[in-house]
Amino acid sequence: MNQKSNTRKPYGTIIALVVVVSYYLLNVRPTSNSTPTADPVDLTTGRYASEPAPFGKALDATMVESVGIVGRVLEDDDNSPHQRFILKLTNGQTLLVRHNTDLSPRIENLQRGDKIKFRGQFKMNDRGGLVHRTHKDSREERAGGWLERDGKRYE
User: In this structure, which topology does domain 32-154 adopt according to CATH?
Assistant: First the structure.
């Protein structure tokens, strides 16, 4: 007589484990207290963002890399040597860029409509966010940032 085994295969447990691990790997984000990673986040895709818009606390203090069009050139900061301008990303988001001209060359003759590629640290603020640290890290404690216009890199 052929009897079926009463032992159950653990398929349900395996599937549940795969779902939990997949969710964790796809949704766990760095906190604002975490050290910036060397792997940048593309702001146009929001690759690591859990919400549809790429700006949020999930990206705070993260190195980001993207491209945008200068929407407005602002005056330099009064208290520190930072070139400032607003970029509009391809997804419609705007972003303040603060470029330290003590640590990296200024982009001369920056104008509205210029296409700028960038890598820097995203910082959350009340207007959506800014990118700073767009220069090499003199202490080599983190991955460096840069700005690029017309193939010329400023780092």
Answer: OB fold (Dihydrolipoamide Acetyltransferase, E2P) (2.40.50)
